[in-house]
Amino acid sequence: MIDFKVLSDYAATFTHSENDLLRQMEEKAAEIYIPIMQPSAMAFLQQLIRWRSARKILELGTAIGYSSIRMALAAGNDTTIVSVERDEAMIEEATQNIEALNLQERIQIVAGDATDDLSEVASAAPYDLILIDAAKVQYEHLFEKCSGLLADQGIIVTDNVFFHGLVCDIDAVQKKQLHRLVKKVDAFNHFLSEREDFDTIFLTVGDGMAVSTKRSCAEGER
Questions:
Q1: 93 is in an annotated binding site
Q2: Are 133 and 160 in contact (CB under 8 A)?
Q3: d(CA 1, CA 99)
Q4: 196 has a pLDDT exceeding 90
Q5: Is residue 42 marked as binding?
Q6: Which tens digit of pLDDT belongs to each residue from 22-44?
Q7: Which residues span the domain enclosing 189?
Q8: 133 is in an annotated binding site
Q9: Is 116 one of the annotated binding-site residues?
Q10: N or C end of the chain: smaller count of CB under 10 Å?
Q11: Cβ–Cβ < 8 Å for 131, 71
Q12: What is the number of other CB atoms lying within 10 angstroms of the CB of residue 195?
């Protein structure tokens, strides 16, 4: 049987970053393990933004600004991206990367914890698309908060929902803390599948991605 990571790496060979800075960011992230989206997942997210003509986007977890930049490039000039990050060093580096590409008018970084009620986030709602790429243990809580900020028939994308394939064999995970985290991710996946106000599909791109589309009011009344 083909290893999931090998297949994901194969898919990534067919994706290409838009500029040298993004390629440098990918190399740095791989070298010192900065959590950015895998290339194949990022490429799909960009296509999803184009398909849905998403112009107002919320991102939970800025890191070094990689996803924000690529989403802004896919969405176009009239984009508004609000990205939440609590790590000051990450915010500083992300700001430098965003300004290097003159995208500061499209991308606003909000300093704070994504689990908190942040006025800058609420004031920009509703969002066409929300990306959850923050602490996995908080996924369910973050989704609940996000759902109220989403436009009718908007989309919530959650990254890393397969957690390196560990969700398929939780009992084999020996370390207690890791086992607890994997169980949390698995529980979140079940939580998504059981929601009646969203339609969710799970995709085997990158490290697993859930795409949840908010049902319209008319659909919810059926």
A1: no
A2: yes
A3: 45
A4: yes
A5: no
A6: 999 988 888 888 888 888 889 99
A7: 4-220
A8: yes
A9: no
A10: N
A11: yes
A12: 15
Give the pLDDT confidence of 84-104 residue by residue, as tens digits: 999 999 999 999 999 999 999
Strand partners, 60: 84, 132
- Could you tell me what percent of the chain has a pLDDT over 90? 62
CA neighbor of 158 nearest in space, from 172, 140, 145:
140
Contact at 8 Å (CB) between 92 and 115? no
Phi, psi of 214 (to 5 degrees): -70, 130
Round to whole Å and give the CA distance between 101 and 153. 31
> What angle do helix axes 66-75 and 39-52 make, rounded to 10 degrees?
30
| CATH code of 82's domain | 3.40.50.150
Q: How far apart are CA 177 and CA 189, in angstroms?
A: 19
**Sign of the four-CA dihedral 61, 67, 68, 69:** positive
Is 3 annotated as ligand-binding? no
Burial 66-98 (b: 16+ CB within 10 A, else e): bbbbbbbbbbeeebbbbbbbbeeebbebbbebb
Q: Answer yes or no: is 209 a known binding residue.
A: no
Specify the number of domains making up the chain.
1
| Tokens standing for residue 202 | 């799970």
- Average pLDDT over all residues of the chain: 89
Percent pLDDT > 70 in the chain is 95
Q: Which of 141, 139, 151, 140 is nearest to 58 (CA)?
A: 151
189 is in an annotated binding site: no
